Automatic annotation (TrEMBL):
Pfam family, one: TctB
Regions that span the bilayer: 24-47, 59-76, 111-136, 148-169
The keyword Membrane appears for this protein: yes
Matches recorded under InterPro entries: DUF1468
Name by which UniProt lists this protein: Tripartite tricarboxylate transporter TctB family protein
Alphabetical keyword list: Membrane, Transmembrane, Transmembrane helix
Source species, domain of life: Bacteria
Organism whose genome encodes this protein: Saccharopolyspora terrae
Ranges for domain DUF1468: 28-170
Length: 178
């Protein structure tokens, strides 16, 4: 004779408690999925004979994907052995306070404006909007210093990436000037 297992409120509560106590396993699954995604994308990177060398274009993605899988396995082992993350105890963090959606929306708008405008007006100007918008969203209200600092940061970032690192960024109307 076989007995069929029935779901009782006690077993449901036990399962919920176990899942609540081991909620970090969700992060493990997320890290593992991300590692598999990175590895599968890395495997599809095309390389021809002229690009080969001791370190090809697949090396870093394979390394990152493998490390993501390793971290997910090590974290899962730690969680299953009873380890868990510490709760937030920062003295400047009030966990009962509501989220500051105005700041989040202003930061999001700055990033979105940069993404939309970078190919239209170039990186130096869109980067200036990004830096200035982020400074404003985070509380800086100096009308002279903030745009000046944003302009310097965006132009320096443009020169570092475009000229020193060889990563071409759109210059926009300032292409001839810079």
């Amino acid at each position: 004779m076989t007995e069929t297992a029935t779901k009782t409120p006690e077993t449901e509560g036990t399962k919920r408690n176990w899942l609540r106590e081991h909620s970090e396993l969700g992060i493990c699954v997320l890290l593992a999925l991300l590692g598999v995604l990175v590895l599968s994308d890395a495997a599809s990177i095309s390389t021809d004979f002229t690009q080969r060398g001791p370190v090809g274009p697949k090396t870093v993605p394979f390394l990152i994907g493998g490390l993501l899988l390793l971290v997910s396995v090590l974290l899962a082992r730690d969680v299953l052995r009873g380890g868990h993350g510490e709760s937030e105890t920062g003295e400047d963090v009030d966990l009962s306070a509501p989220s500051d959606w105005r700041t989040v929306l202003l930061l999001s708008a700055s990033f979105l404006a940069n993404a939309v405008l970078i190919n239209v007006i170039g990186f130096p100007l869109s980067g200036m909007i990004l830096f200035w918008g982020c400074a404003y969203a985070l509380g800086s209200r100096n009308a002279v210093r903030d745009p000046l600092l944003a302009a310097v940061l965006s132009v320096v970032t443009y020169f570092v990436f475009n000229n020193l690192l060889g990563v071409p960024l759109p210059g926009g109307p300032l292409m001839g000037v810079l």
